[in-house]
């Protein structure tokens, strides 16, 4: 099949910050799949402004096994990246698709790029590569919208 290209373009991606730490497990017999699945994952993101009209800038931060009082053994990770996107010929793209591309697809692409970086960082580590599980992008967008709505209502109060 011949690939049809999306009107969404990733113009630039940069790794802005990363942190890797290995916490030595106390037990020798650990099921890595279960351990990795039990890691808490926190994802935050925000849209920035660009000087070029029609460009979307998205900053995304992923923390794995961080923020708890008692961190689980194995990997403790944080990666943060920034991406610049553009929708080609936006006036000829249906509004629903344009919204989907500018929100859902951009965040999905950023998470996938950061997932790859986390895997590369940990691949030579003592427990092998950590692969971030699939993420519910719609849920992230919904949670972010609710958080912003609450913050706005606090400001108005």
Structural summary, described in words:
This protein has a single domain, classed as Bacterial Protein-export protein SecB, CATH 3.10.420. 36% of the residues lie in helices and 31% in strands. It has three helices and four strands. It has a four-stranded antiparallel beta sheet, with helices on one face. 15% of the residues are buried. This is Preprotein translocase subunit SecB. InterPro entries: SecB-like_sf.
**Which stretches of 5+ consecutive residues score pLDDT under 50?**
none
Main sheet characteristics: 4 strands, antiparallel
Strand order of the largest sheet: 1-4-3-2
CATH-defined architecture: Roll
Helix content: 25-40%
By CATH, the superfamily comes out as SecB-like
CATH level 1 name: Alpha Beta
What is the third-level CATH name, the topology? Bacterial Protein-export protein SecB
Please tally the β strands and state the result: 4
What sequence of helices (H) and strands (E) makes up the elements?
EHEEEHH
**Beta-strand proportion:** 25-35%
Instruction: Name the shape in a single word.
Output: globular
> What is the rounded Rg?
18 Å
Protein name: Preprotein translocase subunit SecB
Characteristic terms for this protein:
157 residues, Bacterial Protein-export protein SecB, 3 helices, 31% strand
Concise overview:
It comes from Algoriphagus antarcticus. The protein has 157 residues and is α+β, with helices and mostly antiparallel strands. The protein has three helices and four strands, in the order βαβββαα.
């Amino acid at each position: 099949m011949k690939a049809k290209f999306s009107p969404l373009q990733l113009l630039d991606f940069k790794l802005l910050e990363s942190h890797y730490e290995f916490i030595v497990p106390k037990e020798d017999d650990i099921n890595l799949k279960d351990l990795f699945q039990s890691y808490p994952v926190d994802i935050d993101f925000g849209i920035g402004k660009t000087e070029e009209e029609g460009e979307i800038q998205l900053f995304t931060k992923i923390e794995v096994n961080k923020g708890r009082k008692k961190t689980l053994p194995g990997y403790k990770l944080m990666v943060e990246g920034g991406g610049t996107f553009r929708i080609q010929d936006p006036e000829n793209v249906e509004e629903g698709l344009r919204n989907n591309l500018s929100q859902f697809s951009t965040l999905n692409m950023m998470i996938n790029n950061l997932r790859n970086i986390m895997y590369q960082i940990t691949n030579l580590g003592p427990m092998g590569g950590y692969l971030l599980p699939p993420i519910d992008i719609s849920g992230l967008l919904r949670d972010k919208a609710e958080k912003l709505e609450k913050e706005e209502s606090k400001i108005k109060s």
